[in-house]
Amino acid sequence: MTAILESFFGGLSIASVLLLAALGLAIVFGLMGVINMAHGELMMLGAYTTFVVQNVLKGTPLESVYILFALVTAFIMASLLGIILERGVVRYLYGRPLETLLATWGVSLILQQLIRSISWQLATGIVLFSLLFFGTLWFFSRRGDFERFRGWFLGVMLPISAAITWFVSDLLGKTHKMPFTRPWFGTQGVDVTAPSWLRGGVPIVPGYQLPLTRLFIILLTAACLLGVYWFLNKTVWGLRIRAVTQNRNMSACLGIPTQKVDALTFAIGSGLAGVAGCAVSLLSSVSSNLGQQYLVDTFMVVVVGGVGKLIGSIAAATGIGLLNYVIAANALGPLLSFSPALTAISEFFASGPMAKVFVFALIVLFLQIRPAGLFPQKGRTVDA
Amino acid sequence: MSQANGSVATSPAALDTQPMLDIRGLNVYYGESHILRNVDMSVQRGQMVCLIGRNGVGKTTMMKTIIGLLSPRSGSIVLEGKEITRLSPDRRAKAGIGYVPQGKDIIPRLTIRENLLLGLEALPPGSAKSQTIPDDIFELFPVLKTMLNRLGGDLSGGQQQQLAIARAMMGRPRLLVLDEPTEGIQPSIVLEIEAAVKSIIRETGISVLLVEQHLHFVRQADWYYAMQKGGIVASGPTKDLSKDVIQEFLAV
Question: Which pLDDT band holds residue A28 (cuts at 50, 70, 90)?
Answer without folding.
Answer: confident
